[in-house]
């Protein structure tokens, strides 16, 4: 149980393109989803937290107009990287949790490797 | 940065040996979690230990937590080549609504 599907797994696109990444919880309802960014051989850095039906909460230094997050249902959150540039190339990972404010693990997708040419 | 530190950064052992990884953090926590990441993949949850617990076991995994020292350790016993991965500790800090702060990670290589 607790499977999170992230799509696409790999994207290569030209500079200036907008890219949408989907994160779906397949067998549970995710009240909260998280979006992370990971550089090679480094740890995960939280970008934003999204709760179903409300605006995402962005971490300090993350541009909300650059990284648009939508959490329209209890099973789907999307991250759109707008007008992507080479410096946005990275590994993006989503996670989902079932209960807000309790001792529950996060369930991670397999990540999306984004390469901007 | 509130990011936790892990040591060692890299660890290479032979199959059958035990692997110990340490994690230190800076804030007060609700719980501490350990995750595993295979190269280029997402994270897999291994074990969660609450702030009022001191030790927890799951199969070949043993986790300890010392909140007075703000540190935790992960022991993998009788390691296997399939245990090769990066291991991250993550703290669920009090007052942060279940957000996780990840440590810097330990890259474990288990050779035959």
Structure description:
The complex is a heterodimer of chains A (117) and B (112). The mean pLDDT of chain A is 92. Chain A is built from no helices and 11 strands. With 117 residues, chain A is an all-beta fold. The radius of gyration of chain B is 13 Å and the shape is globular. Chain B has 112 residues and is mostly beta strands. In chain B, the strands form 2 sheets. In chain B, strands 2, 4, 5, 9, 10 and 11 form a 6-stranded mixed sheet that branches. In chain B, strands 1-3-8-7-6 form a 5-stranded antiparallel sheet, with no helix packed on it. At the A-B interface, strand 5, strand 9 and strand 10 of A face strand 4, strand 5 and strand 10 of B.
Fold topology:
The complex is a heterodimer of chains A (117) and B (112).
Chain A: E1 4-7, E2 10-13, E3 19-25, E4 32-38, E5 44-51, E6 57-58, E7 67-73, E8 76-81, E9 90-97, E10 107-108, E11 112-116
Parallel strand pairs in A: 2-11
Antiparallel strand pairs in A: 1-3, 3-8, 4-5, 4-9, 5-6, 7-8, 9-10, 9-11
Chain B: E1 5-7, E2 10-14, E3 19-24, E4 29-37, E5 43-50, E6 55-58, E7 61-66, E8 71-76, E9 85-93, E10 100-102, E11 106-111
Parallel strand pairs in B: 2-11
Antiparallel strand pairs in B: 1-3, 3-8, 4-5, 4-9, 6-7, 7-8, 9-10, 9-11
Q: How confident is the prediction overall: mean pLDDT of chain A?
A: 92
Rg of chain A to the nearest angstrom? 13 Å
Instruction: Classify the secondary structure makeup of chain B into a structural class.
Output: mainly beta
β-sheet strand percentage of chain B: over 45%
Largest sheet of chain B: 6 strands, mixed
Which runs of chain A of at least 5 residues are low in confidence (pLDDT < 50)? none
Which term fits the overall shape of chain A? globular
Q: Please give the alpha-carbon distance between the first and last residues of chain B.
A: 38 Å
Q: How many β-strand runs of chain A?
A: 11
Helix content of chain A: under 10%
Poorly predicted parts of chain B: none
Oligomer: heterodimer
Order of helices and strands of chain B: EEEEEEEEEEE
Largest sheet of chain A: 7 strands, mixed
- Please provide the ordered H/E string of secondary-structure elements of chain A: EEEEEEEEEEE
* Rg value of chain B: 13 Å
Intertermini distance of chain A: 37 Å
What is the tally of beta strands of chain B? 11
Q: Please report which band the strand proportion of chain A falls in: under 5%, 5-15%, 15-25%, 25-35%, 35-45% or over 45%.
A: over 45%
Helix content of chain B: under 10%
